[in-house]
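Reminder: ligand-aware prediction takes two inputs, not one.
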Amino acid sequence: MTTRAGFVALIGEPNAGKSTLLNRMVGAKVSIVTHKVQTTRARIRGVAMSGDSQIVFVDTPGIFRPRRRLDRAMVTAAWGGAADADIVVLMIEAHRGITDGVRQIIESLSEREGTQRVALAINKIDRVQADVLLGLTKELNALFAFEETFLISAEKGHGTDTLKSWLAGVVPEGPYLYPEDQIADLPMRMIAAEVTREKLTLRLHQELPYQMTVETEKWEEREDGSVRIDQLIYVMRDGHKGIVLGNRGETIKALGKAAREELTEFVGRKVHLFLQVKVRPNWLEESERYSEMGLDFKDGAL
Ligand SMILES: Nc1nc2c(ncn2[C@@H]2O[C@H](COP(=O)(O)OP(=O)(O)OP(=O)(O)O)[C@@H](O)[C@H]2O)c(=O)[nH]1
Ligand SMILES: [Mg+2]
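Here is what comes back for the chain with magnesium ion:
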């Protein structure tokens, strides 16, 4: 039997639907998804099987014009993810079309044209009339010689099987890279931190843009089969701490409950989750925060 296995990097602007697609391909929630831009911060791998092929999807942070240290580290991680992959899939949003951001990403791809296979996935086709798609496909293919174009809805699952089968056929021949039953390649403590960060972002997106980070301090397997998880939420200001706690601690209680429920499902055991908020005005400049996120602090340097 000949098997195939390879890495497929999903790149695109923030909010394009990269994490949604990865989760659909893997068939489980591996990467967090929110309606906010810049949700994914590091490279997250999800493993999917298709026939005798193993496709390792690499979710990346969105590519945008970076301003802060964290932004730069994220964008570097995204391009690094693309460079390491066997195939790159550029995702764009059908209803937004060819934005300046998309043009810039295509320009960067053009600089290394020929070094890698690049396919195009026009996502969120559920949001546009079908006739828009033909024009968009033509225009994008005039800008770059994509190997294939796929029209998909990552959320609804339209066209995603076709994309998966195509990828299964083009990843290189070779042995599997991960055990067949493994779906993610991210330490549990990091997945746990991401789940809490998702709940925080969903609940507090207006008040707390994205100036917080979550770290798992302790992961303790208990004798009764349950897990105790202690996490720290870093915010930049006292006011932010108040927002996360909420009136009489109501906000943190509610988001802790939501995170705990999801984690319980994920680990398949009872979870005790303890959250603590810390004010750390300078966390964006601390190298340890970056390694905890799976980013390289040096990548953020100017
Ligand atoms: N209507 C529609 N919405 C979608 C589709 N795919 C993703 N979304 C939504 O788009 C938003 C962003 O999705 P994500 O998967 O977090 O996007 P991303 O590219 O990973 O974003 P970053 O991590 O910030 O770079 C979420 O609200 C998704 O539910 C789709 O096919 N159709
Ligand atoms: Mg994402």
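Residues 188-300 form a domain with the GMP Synthetase; Chain A, domain 3 fold (CATH 3.30.300.20). The chain has two domains: 4-170, 188-300. We will return to this case in the review session.
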